[in-house]
Amino acid sequence: MNDPGDRLPARAHGGSSTNGSQAVLARHVAEAIARHRDQSALIRLIAAELPPRERGAWRVMADSLDTRDLRRGTAAAAATPECWTPLFASAGGDPRLPARLLQTAARPRQMAEARWLLVAYPLAIAALGLWLLGGLSATVFTGFEALFLAYGQELPLATKTALALRFWGPLPVGVGVGLIMLAWWLAVRRSAGSSVATASFTRTLARLIAAEIPTDEAISLAGRVVAAPALDLANPRPPLGYAAAAALDFTPRTAAILLDAIANCHDDRGRGSLNLSQWFVGPVLLGLVGLLVGFIAVALFLPLLKLVGALS
């Protein structure tokens, strides 16, 4: 009976341009299974410490190593390539592999946390404005309107507008949702999201290049981590920037050091975008809420001042 390892394909000659991206991935999965089968127990221990939503990918990776199931392993690597990258970039028995696996396991939570923090402050401010308007509509507005009608006051336009806000329930909700979506798109997708993705791609590329994986294959595998296929070294585009492309001209060890430095720069840009959200977008929304409160206060007290003047 043949050993299950006989089903693993031999290393083919040529890069991703010959075999295709999927073939390159399958070959590296096969080599990772052959080199790191004894690491399945460690991977299961890591999976046990992860949140429930993140355990599945690591358990599938461990199962693939145990059973040497190339098809399942390739499918898992295509879905969550970041989990497999430490296996691709480490030789058999490499003492650095456990640390690399732990770093990779922690990174998704850090990225998710950064994205949440980026929108939490603006989201809280927008929600505060909506709750304030809803509370005023249900309590203060009704009382003031009854008072004005009782004295037959001719209401100023500002007061009429403020009282009419309670009938515009869908409008402030829609505006609030629009502000939240705009903050998410500008802050996450256009700034921090791209910086986080580029940093993740570049750092993954550094690990693969340091392992002396051919450049075109390393770019293909790293691109899968951030869902950026078909990257071309001759025509760099995000997340493969010109700086990273230039770093690849050096020897693998030097290129890996340069790529790590470039990834750190992108991490700094992501943190700068977080500061932008906290110190610009949030205060702007807070100012809008303040203007709304000020407008309502002035509009409701204008008729009262006029009434007091008439009674005196």
Describe the protein.
The chain is an all-alpha fold and 312 residues long. The protein has two domains: 79 residues, no CATH class; 205 residues, no CATH class. It has 13 helices and no strands. Helix 3 runs parallel beside helix 7 and helix 6 packs antiparallel against helix 7. The protein is elongated, with a radius of gyration of 29 Å. It starts with 15 loop residues before the first helix and ends with a helix.
Structure at a glance:
Helices cover about 80% and strands about 0% of the residues. It has about 300 residues and is an all-alpha fold. Mean pLDDT is about 75; it is low at about 1-20.
Summarize this structure as a short list of keywords or feature phrases.
2 domains, single chain, mainly alpha, 312 residues
Termini gap: 107 Å
The H-and-E topology, N to C, reads as: HHHHHHHHHHHHH
Using only C-alpha atoms, the radius of gyration works out to 29 Å
What is the strand content? under 5%
How can the largest sheet be summarized? Answer: none
Tally of helical runs: 13
Alpha-beta content class: mainly alpha
The poorly predicted ranges are: 1-19
